[in-house]
Amino acid sequence: MESRSRTRRYGGWWWLVHPILLLLLAAPASADPRAPLIWAFGDSLTAGYGLPPAQGFPAQLQAELRRQGVAATVRNGGVAGDTAAQGRARLRWGLRGLKARPDLVIVELGANDMLRGLPVAQAQANLDRILTELRARNIPVLLAGMRAAPNMGGDYARAFEGMYPALAKKHRVALYPFFLDGVAGRRALFQADGLHPDPRGVAIIVRRIVPPVRRALK
C-alpha cells in the first residue's frame, strides 16, 4: 500500500526520483570535495638536498599536516642552488606542471642570493615579481624569510632581512620570518656541509611552520 501511494504521489517520475534521493541521503554531510594542494616553491631547503625524498621538507610537511587532520598534498617545487631570479624564471611552467591551482604556495627563496653576495635590490625585485604573479592568479602565499650570514656585514644583513617583511606587507601575504627558525646555530641538526638540515632539523622546521601554514590555508 505504501509503495502504491508513493507512486500516485510522484506519478511516473518515482522510478527516477527514488534512486536520486537514496544517493543524496547516503552521501556524507561533511564530505570534503578536494584536499588542499600546497606547493613548496624554493631552493635546496625545500628541495630536500642531501636527503631521501621521504625525509625532505615537502614529505615531512605533508605527513605532519595529515597527522593533524589536514588532508593536504604537498608538492616539491624546490631546486637546489636557485636564486630568486632563477625561481622567477621557472615559476610559470612550474605552476603549469602542477595541473591544478594550488591552495597555497610557500615561497622560500633568497638564501642563495645572500650566499653569493648578490645585491639585495636584485633579490627583492625578483621576489616582488614572483609575488605579483601569484597574486594575479589569486593564489595564497606564505612567504618564508631568511637571515643573512654574519660575514655579510650589518648593512647587508639589515637590507636583506628587511626585504621579506616589506614584501609581505606590500603584497598582503602571510610571512614566516625565518625558515630555519629553531635549527640555525645548532650544528647537530645539519648535514656535513653545515648548510642543509638533516631529517631531525627538517622535522623541527615543519613543526614550527605548520601553524602558519594552517592559518594561510584558511
Task: Report what the structure shows.
There is one protein chain. The protein has a five-stranded parallel β-sheet, with helices on both faces. It contains nine helices and five strands, in the order ααβααβαβααβαβα. 32% of the residues are buried. Helix 8 links the parallel strand 4 (141-144) and strand 5. It has 218 residues and is of the alpha/beta class.
Query: Order of strands across the widest beta sheet?
Result: 2-1-3-4-5
Mean pLDDT: 88
Relative strand content: 5-15%
The tally of helices reads 9
Q: How many strands appear in the DSSP assignment?
A: 5
- Spans where pLDDT lies below 50 across 5 or more residues: 1-33
Backbone shape: globular
Biggest sheet features:
5 strands, parallel
